[in-house]
Amino acid sequence: MSAVEAKLAELGLSLPEVVPPLAAYQPAVRSGRYVFTAGQLPMVDGKLPLTGKVGAEVTPEEAKDLARTCALNALAAVKSVAGDLDRVARVVKVVGFVASAADFTGQPAVLNGASELLGEVLGDKGVHARSAVGVAVLPLDAPVEVEIQVELTEA
């Protein structure tokens, strides 16, 4: 077990299976020392636990937990191409999308779920730049979607 996966276990978490693509793309691709994930939905066992807009059908607190799940799914996608999460030198960028009710402006707080998970699991390597974007709708009516970019150590 890698040190990162041991940290996940210590937090009561484990890496899920990589979420299969919903269309014509790969869950993650590697280019040199960088891994770019596709947008990861908060899928759990192949299903979305909640659907709808944040600030309407989904509370900000629920959405923050879903963003955490998205980040966990993103780490699984990274591992699928990197082979070992201990090769992560740092998370470079996180981009999060929040399906938002018209008057909802708390996207940054929702995306803290993803950012905080990455920090808990990777420590200083999890500190990153981030964008939090409110959108009208996401695939499958998901409340949140997160993509990450990571730099790997030399092999």
Strand order of the largest sheet: 1-2-5-3-4
> Distance between the terminal alpha carbons, to the nearest Å?
18 Å
**Largest sheet, described in full?**
5 strands, mixed
Mean pLDDT figure: 97
* N to C succession of SSEs: HEEHEHEE
Q: Which stretches are poorly predicted, pLDDT < 50 over at least 5 residues?
A: none
Number of helices: 3
Gyration radius, rounded: 15 Å
Shape: globular
Class of secondary structure makeup: alpha+beta
Strand content: 15-25%
Estimated helix fraction: 25-40%
Count of beta strands = 5
Outline the structure in words.
There is one protein chain. By secondary structure, the chain is an alpha+beta fold. Helices cover 30% and strands 23% of the residues. It is built from three helices and five strands, in the order H-E-E-H-E-H-E-E. It has a five-stranded mixed sheet, with helices on one face. The longest helix has 23 residues, at 60-82. It is globular and about 45 Å long.
